[in-house]
Write a structure and sequence with these properties.
Layout lengths: L24 H16 L5 E3 L9 H8 L3 E8 L2 E9 L14 E2 L4 H15 L21 H5 L4 H5 L13 E2 L7 H6 L23 H15 L3 H10 L25 E2 L3 E2 L6 E2 L2 H4 L2 E2 L1 H15 L9 H8 L11 E3 L6 E8 L2 E8 L5 E6 L5 H14 L9 E3 L6 H5 L3 E5 L2 E8 L2 E6 L2 E7 L4 E4 L5 E6 L5 E6 L4 E5 L2
Parallel strand pairs: 1-14
Antiparallel strand pairs: 2-3, 2-13, 4-9, 5-8, 6-7, 10-11, 11-12, 12-13, 15-16, 15-22, 16-17, 17-18, 18-19, 19-20, 20-21, 21-22
Helix pairs in contact: 1-12, 3-8, 10-11
């Protein structure tokens, strides 16, 4: 179901004041074919070489994945060309609008990075000094590793500070979510911690939510203000991201315009979503159009067309910092005109994906209120890249066809478990299928043991015993093993 405020399936949201689209009715109509092509041309993550892939419509893939709602904003020619939404805020409830708020998850990090770098540009912060010089309410614990190298803002922004990583999920319901200081100190109800340094700072890159918790505390201590206010003043207001907030929990006044996160088989989360006091890592509520404004600012700043928050040289370092060798809050891939930047985000019940070209003024932001929407977000991104002829290779993974008989495939069928999690392998139309608590997919063979899930590209390796009988499934490069029970 599309937004009821939109008159026709391919209608354009014309909101000149909020930047969703500018232009006359003729220009709007000219975009309708492009929108339809995106809406009906969502590819799977994996296709077989030499075969025409099955394309899905957005709503078809939503139904297949059991995703309640998804919202999209597309950037072309350096501005937001159109924004659309599909589905509902919550199962059985009212439709989405393009102004519905979603949790951005880790796409919060580049917004926070921009705020921190604005203080560097002003001379208030130094990227390369010990952050304990600025921290007051909490300090990075000293140990033998910090004696060799220091935790700096540059290293925190680029995930190279050696800070402990993924100690525990730091979200929770109202009254149960740990505060920022409880997360840093490892105090209940925080489940892990305390946050410490367990790699030599600067020695390697390792993604760390905890590192961005430190950045959040640093900004609070330096500015002497609540974190949501800091973010509003330094980034959200200058970029006219008027439908965005770092407030946790979400204010009562915004609850009616917020989507509800859905987990598991599609159960809605109470009170819209979990509360994340580690706002620096994942506390942003926003819309695709507001995140598109952020992406456009990055594009314009690195070309010298804008300096609303940062000078161009510092914005360029967000994509590729010459000192650390990594991006500061963002990451870039590809070369030349095909170079892209972006970030993905995942909070309980929400997914977000932002990708844009560093040159050429093109991009897309997709947000969904379900943990199962990864194939949909990736597919919409590929559909936009194809329709707008982005340079580079943003396309499904193509694998060589591997012939395997139906009789042999039948020997893979059965149930596989890890703990209480059960996966069922079946067969339909001479193809293996996978079914579990969060959905189902078709398996594409790359060899007699390696299979890829068609929609999301996840690799499964079937493990055989000495008699060539399948006894387990290996996932994530061998980090997870599901044992066959029947």
């Amino acid at each position: 179901m599309m937004c009821t405020a939109i008159a026709t399936k391919a209608a354009i949201i014309v909101l000149a004041l909020t930047g969703c689209l500018t232009g006359n009715q003729g220009a709007q109509r000219s975009l309708e074919p492009r929108i339809r092509n995106v809406e009906t041309g969502v590819p799977p993550a994996v296709i077989v070489k030499g075969e025409a892939p099955d394309m899905f419509s957005i709503t078809e893939m939503m139904a297949k994945l059991n995703v309640p709602g998804v919202s999209v904003a597309v950037i072309d020619q350096g501005k937001i060309q159109w924004a659309e939404c599909y589905g509902v805020k919550e199962v059985g409830e009212e439709p989405l609008t393009v102004n519905t708020l979603f949790q951005a998850g880790s796409v919060s990090k580049p917004i926070v990075a921009m705020a921190a770098l604005s203080l560097v540009a002003e001379g208030t912060l130094d990227l390369d000094v010990d952050v304990n010089r600025y921290l007051k309410s909490w300090r990075v614990p000293e140990n033998e590793l910090t004696g060799r190298e220091k935790v700096t803002l540059r290293r925190l922004l680029s995930h190279t500070a050696g800070v402990s990583s993924f100690l525990a999920d730091d979200g929770g319901p109202a009254g149960e979510a740990p505060t920022l200081l409880q997360i840093l100190n490892g105090e209940p109800p925080a489940e892990g911690g305390p946050v410490s340094v367990d790699l030599v700072p600067g020695s390697e890159q390792r993604y760390s939510n905890e590192g961005y918790a430190i950045i959040q505390q640093l900004l609070i201590d330096v500015e002497g203000k609540p974190f949501p206010r800091i973010m509003k003043e330094r980034v959200l207001e200058p970029l006219k991201m008027d439908r965005s907030t770092f407030a946790q929990p979400l204010p009562e006044s915004l609850l009616p315009v917020a989507a509800t996160g859905h987990i598991g088989a599609g159960e809605p989360i109470e009170d819209k979503g979990l509360i994340y006091h580690n706002m620096g890592a994942g506390g942003l509520w926003t819309t695709p159009s507001d995140l598109a404004r952020f992406a456009v600012e990055i594009q314009r700043s690195i070309t010298g067309e804008s300096s609303s928050v940062l000078p161009g040289e510092m914005t360029s370092a967000m994509l590729d910092d010459p000192v650390s060798g990594y991006g500061l809050g963002l990451g870039a891939r590809g070369v030349g005109l095909g170079r892209t930047f972006g970030h993905s985000g995942h909070n309980a019940g929400f997914l977000c994906h932002m990708k844009a070209l560093a040159e050429g003024g093109q991009g897309v932001v997709v947000m969904a209120n379900s943990n199962k929407a990864i194939p949909l977000l990736e597919g919409i991104t590929m559909a936009v890249a194809r329709e707008y002829e982005w340079p580079g290779d943003i396309a499904p993974r193509e694998i060589e066809p591997f012939e395997i008989t139906e009789e042999e495939l039948s020997t893979y069928c059965g149930q596989y478990v890890i703990g209480d999690y059960v996966v069922t392998i079946g067969m339909e139309k001479e193809c293996l299928t996978i079914s579990h608590f969060e959905g189902e997919d078709t398996l594409i063979p790359a060899s007699d043991t390696l299979f890829l899930q068609q929609l999301d590209g996840i690799e499964l390796t079937f493990v055989k015993d000495g008699q060539n009988q399948v006894e387990a499934i290996s996932l994530m490069g061998g980090r997870l093993t599901l044992t066959r029970i029947e």
